[in-house]
């Protein structure tokens, strides 16, 4: 359904060219859910934004993004806007920024409901109430008339999900949907996403491995703009191959919070060879000079970008 090949996104800045996304390939089947994980600044959000072409002016982008046979890199912006509102929805990272503070939440959901559909005011109101119920609001009529600042973080996130699923999209890109939520809210949002988006394909962008593994079939691990490992959730968690994935799992609070030594490389001046080699406990001479490919060394359904594992 979604086929991304050799996607490269970079930004021109006064300091130099920031290679935020470098040669990413991803293919997503109908209904499939993948988690895109990796530390801050590795390019996850830029990847998501590149798929739907929501990028600033200082961007250069190349490669191919094909969605249901349409080339999203070349469709006109007006067509892209229709696709964004109805077929692909992007649930943004920060609901406080993405909700309009001056508009009642009901109106904002109604806008999303109407997009691409010819509904009467009464029908779209009814659908809005249904969506609010679906995202677990007991009193949708009351919530409809609230302004975003009158809601808690978890409630706003649920409103964002209602907006995200309003058009019954085929693909949902959710950027950190559980960020800054407490444990109970996190659990609720995850189960909501998995119930309401059952039929949609999903790319879930997150730092949270546990969240990704609850919802996703597959995990892609990203480091310094590229995918370093790709495989089924359970296998990545129980038997990670790439030294970065191993370190990332150990850094999770559940696994002892052991920080990865060193810091993420500058995307302007990337290390030679394997991008992880300066921080890798197993790096050998080859890792310092040769850039490894993402290959199927272990089995056909797993990929790893490492000379040594
Ligand atoms: N408009 C821009 N101009 C220049 N650099 C940018 C721009 N937008 C993003 N970047 C850079 O691109 C890199 C990737 O950013 P991105 O937001 O995709 O990271 P991320 O993996 O989503 O991180 P986080 O987990 O913190 O959300 C970062 O180094 C960021 O500073
Ligand atoms: Ni991000």
TrEMBL record:
It is a peripheral membrane protein. Keywords: ATP-binding, Cell membrane, Ion transport, Membrane, Nucleotide-binding, Translocase, Transport. One of its GO terms (molecular function) is ATP binding. It catalyses: Ni(2+)(out) + ATP + H2O = Ni(2+)(in) + ADP + phosphate + H(+). Pfam families: ABC_tran (PF00005), oligo_HPY (PF08352). SMART domains: AAA. GO terms for biological process: peptide transport. InterPro entries: AAA+_ATPase, ABC_Ni/Peptide_Import, ABC_transporter-like_ATP-bd, ABC_transporter-like_CS, Oligopep_ABC_C, P-loop_NTPase. SUPFAM superfamilies: P-loop containing nucleoside triphosphate hydrolases. NCBIfam families: oligo_HPY. This is Nickel import system ATP-binding protein NikD.
